[in-house]
Amino acid sequence: MGTELSNWFLRFAITPKCNFRCEYCNPAGLKQEGNIVKEDDIIDILKAVNKVGVNRVHWTGGEPTIMDIEYLISSARQIGFKEQVMTTNGSKGGKLLRHLVDRGLSRLIVSLDTLDPERFEKVTRTKHFYDVLDTIETSVKILYAPTKVNVVYMQETKSEIPSFIEYGKRLNRIPNKKGDAIVKFIEMSQNNPVFHQDSGKSLYTSSHSTRDELFEELSKIGSLEPSKVRGNNPNTEYYRINGEGITIGLITIPSLGYKCGGNKCTKIRMNPYGAAAVCISQEPTIML
């Protein structure tokens, strides 16, 4: 069985809680509640999946850094995980990131939906803009694997797409850096339960921007050439923008009808309540 699962990885949402209150994720600004898996439970799950051959883990949330992520990453390395990825809002800055890399983190994905400090404060309801930039810049400097910047593009922020391209190019010109930056544009999706509420429905109607609209904006910058990048999401497309010196990613699942990734998808999902699934559309099975 170890051989069968060696190409699979565990995407572990270790908490539903977040120190941001992003308007497209939590428009009512509610505090997340609920009983979640304890750190000892997380370690037990890691041991179990590693025993059958899984040696990659992708830490997500909520926001994973509000947990004792240093302990969890160190423990995962000791258990035998060879690759550890984290998706974060970057609010803890580069200092924490350096600690996490020392403990075994190998790749980073940071969410950043605007490069305007005032708009950032409105979108996230926080003042962590410059901490996020510090996290991204530090990641490019110290990690060999590409640092991916996830941008949920909306009607309100479409005009910033060229600015994000320029931002990625600036990151890739950092002297003596170890890795590159990739900007990923993500179409707003209705997977979050909040979009079944009135506030979420209203927000989606006013803010959602389609795949065609994204390509229209990108075509103003340059022609796109398909590219391959390390990653495990079969619904992500990567392109080089000719003459711009940067790779971008696109996730436009709603416009594509939420198509299945097929046998290219090797993701085991674990949610903060101890339930597992192999697809975002599958009903999770309680494991604990």
What does this structure look like?
The chain has 288 residues and is of the alpha/beta class. It is 32% helix and 20% strand. The chain contains nine helices and twelve strands. It has a twelve-stranded mixed sheet, covered by helices on one side. Strand 3 (83-88), helix 4 and strand 4 form a beta-alpha-beta unit. Helix 2 (39-51) runs parallel beside helix 3 (69-79) and helix 4 runs parallel beside helix 6 (129-142). The longest helix is centred in the middle third of the chain and has 14 residues, at 129-142. The radius of gyration is 18 Å and the shape is globular. The chain starts with a helix and ends with a strand. 35% of the residues are buried.
Features:
288 residues; alpha/beta; 12-stranded mixed sheet; 9 helices; globular
Q: In which range does the helix fraction lie?
A: 25-40%
Major sheet, described briefly? Answer: 12 strands, mixed
- Strand ordering within the main sheet: 7-8-9-6-5-4-3-2-1-10-11-12
Classify the secondary structure makeup into a structural class: alpha/beta
How many helix segments? 9
Mean pLDDT: 89
Strand residue percentage: 15-25%
| Count of beta strands | 12
Following the backbone from N to C, one meets helices and strands in this order, namely HEHEHEHEHHEHEHHEEEEEE
Overall geometry comes to globular
- Measured distance between first and last alpha carbons: 21 Å
Segments where pLDDT lies below 50 for 5+ residues? none
The radius of gyration over CA amounts to: 18 Å
List the helices and strands and how they pair.
Elements: H1 2-5, E1 9-13, H2 39-51, E2 56-60, H3 69-79, E3 83-88, H4 93-103, E4 107-111, H5 117-124, H6 129-142, E5 147-153, H7 161-171, E6 181-187, H8 198-207, H9 211-219, E7 224-227, E8 237-241, E9 246-251, E10 267-270, E11 275-277, E12 285-286
Parallel strand pairs: 1-2, 1-10, 2-3, 3-4, 4-5, 5-6, 6-9
Antiparallel strand pairs: 7-8, 8-9, 10-11, 11-12
Helix pairs in contact: 2-3, 4-6
